[in-house]
Amino acid sequence: MQTLHSPLADLWAEMGDPARLTEIGLLSTLIVLTWLGMEVLRRRLRAGGEARRLPSDADWRQLLLPAALLPGVLLGRVVLGHWQSVHLFNLAVPLLVAMLAIQGVFFFLRRIFKPSKGVQALQRTVSWLAWGILALHLTGYLEEVVAAMEHLGFNVGQQRLSLYSLVMGLFWLAITLMVALWLARQAEDRLETLPLHANLRLALAKLARGLLLVLAVLVTLPLVGIDITVLSVFGGALGIGLGLGLQKVAANYVSGFTLLLDQSIRIGDMVTVGTQFGEVTQIATRYTVIRGLDGSETIIPNETLITSAVVNHSLSAPDNLVAIPVQVAYDSDLRRVEAILLRIAAAHPRVMPEHEPKVRLVGFGENGIDLKLVVWIRDPEEGQVALVSDINWAIWDAFRGEGIEIPYPQRVVYIRQDAQAAVTKAQHSATIPDPSTPCP
């Protein structure tokens, strides 16, 4: 261990030095004072009515405590280093930095993504990488690993890219993207408090997210030594790709922003697209989700909603007309039938009393008189099947109680005289036995 030039080796070499007791005492005092100070601050904030703005208990212990302790440890290392060696402080600083980095990543991930197995796997990966780098640093092998990664590389034009530069590029890209996504989430939360329409809030949120992601990439490229002018070549290639093979994708993205801005289709609207009827539950940049009354979800490209006819049942007002066909026999009292139908419609809770129900005489059909009961509803999201079924059951019960006939297909057959005579002759011949026929 003494041959290794590392914080852990230096601490091991002077473990028996009485100066270590001074380090342990000072470090323990800093930990206790920091913890007590954080608890006092936390209680005062809670007492002042700021409980909703406070981080969770896990964030308070795992993130804020190392963040508050690290400056004190750095200051203590500088002050105590004037009189003695500070190997224990040299060991505590990277430990606190590793804890702060890991918990900082966890903090952002919990606020960017919803809990899932993928997020948990990402957290475990970050933990293993952070502790692995810390272990290499403490044992003195980190510089050798970095030198080996710098040695492995290749030239791109006049620029050399090594394995270390690629890894650092991915690291800074992940950091900037994570910060951009967190800022986008903060912008979304801020937009939720503004008195804006839901579609406009969604459009602004998606626009802010896209701009922040592009800015994160632009910031990362110079950090890893890549000339930002290479984006001009990439932009030309992207333009050719959009013109040749990504026309539909680009059209769907543009259509998505068009839908969000013109507000012709909004989240919560009841729409009919082709044969699909349901509620708009999500308007993404590429597609729109329509949830049917049976619980199924249909994903429709945004371009379809722009270029085809869409029936919006709740664009300007949620009032919807429902027409229920009814047929009665010709000998029915139509005025009595009209009164029964109006009474049934007025008794249903979903029928709007502001729009008076009507009974329309549609025509005189082949089997009976065709009527249509017209009602208005204000909740198209509940569908029409249950409403029509309830009213039809009520009509059936009322007609049976009132003796009103619901006709079924009927035919009147007229028999001509010559045909009648032929039938009678055939029946008569069938009753007289033939003499030529032998008896059994």
Q: Can you walk through the features of this model?
A:
Helix content is 59%, strand content 13%. The chain has helices at 7-13, 19-47, 57-80, 87-112, 117-139, 142-151, 163-192, 198-223, 230-244, 247-262, 302-307, 334-347, 385-402, 417-431, and strands at 153-156, 159-162, 270-273, 276-283, 287-291, 297-301, 311-312, 320-328, 358-364, 369-377. The strands form three sheets. Strands 6-5-4-3-7 form a five-stranded antiparallel β-sheet. A three-stranded antiparallel β-sheet has the order 8-10-9, with helices on one face. The longest helix has 30 residues, at 163-192. The radius of gyration is 40 Å and the shape is elongated.
Offer a quick outline of the entry:
The protein is α+β, with helices and mostly antiparallel strands and 440 residues long. Helices cover 59% and strands 13% of the residues. The protein is built from 14 helices and 10 strands.
| Oligomer category | single chain
Structural class: alpha+beta
Strand residue content = 5-15%
Largest sheet: 5 strands, antiparallel
What is the helix fraction of residues, given as a range?
A: 55-70%
Q: With helices defined by DSSP (H or I, 4 residues minimum), what is the helix count? A: 14
> Can you tell me the residue ranges where pLDDT is under 50 for at least 5 consecutive residues?
none
Shape summary: elongated
Helix and strand run: HHHHHHEEHHHHEEEEHEEHEEHH
- Report how far apart the termini are: 127 Å
Radius of gyration: 40 Å
Mean pLDDT metric: 78
Strand order of the largest sheet: 6-5-4-3-7
Number of strands: 10
